[in-house]
Amino acid sequence: MNEPTTVLPNNSNQVDALPSQFARASEKQQKQMIPELIELGESGWDVLMEFLPTDRGSAVTLVQGMVYQALYAAKTPKTQEFLISNFPTGLVPLVSDRGLDYSDLQQLLAEQDFQQADRLTLQKLCQLAGSEAIQRKWLYFTEIDNIPASDLQTINSLWFLHSQGKFGFSVQRELWLGGGKNWEKLWSKIGWKQGNNWTRYPQEFIWDLSAPTGHLPLSNQLRGVRVIAALFSHPAWSK
């Protein structure tokens, strides 16, 4: 049975009901309503701003991530002031056991600059892996265990929440597990390989949300599967 479509008010008398209407809607309906609320202007922005959890006491949901992203993209003085005042470093707590600053990665992902965010992600992973990884600018699979779970979860959460749930290591891992841990199936599904041909970097990769689910962030699969297999086996995903 199809879920009924939520119809937003078309006159000022109904605007007061918007916050409760949005809060009561299903997740699917909320996702549909977000761009419509942005289009309503100030009354719609107010609904979305009220929806975001400024107390930061609970886990961030995908819908909250989409709301944050929509408000960020609106780039109005009111939405910008709200986000800067309440979420100066974004919606995701930037936790790091190594004291790394993830605000630059958060900024790139909020701007939807996925190509630069992908490059920065590798740089962050190398910093976490150790001095030798920093010098060579890529990872050995034996270095993955050096990466704290909290840092990997922070990186993954940033990718996930700023991509409407399409990107992130956890997304890739679920696709890999769902495909029976078959690497060839994974490469094809996430768009890293077409037939027998590897997708060429960077021109053939898709750096926006039209990409296949799990397309980003990248891993240098041409060096083999050991690094990405180690990432997928990291304790971060069992915590």
From TrEMBL:
PANTHER family: TETRAPYRROLE-BINDING PROTEIN, CHLOROPLASTIC (PTHR34800:SF1). It comes from Merismopedia glauca CCAP 1448/3. One of its GO terms (molecular function) is tetrapyrrole binding. Residues 96-235 form the GUN4-like domain. One of its GO terms (cellular component) is outer membrane-bounded periplasmic space. InterPro entries: ARM-type_fold (IPR016024), GUN4-like (IPR008629), GUN4-like_sf (IPR037215), GUN4_N (IPR032192). Residues 10-88 form the GUN4 N-terminal ARM-like repeat domain. SUPFAM superfamilies: ARM repeat (SSF48371), GUN4-like (SSF140869). This is GUN4 domain-containing protein.
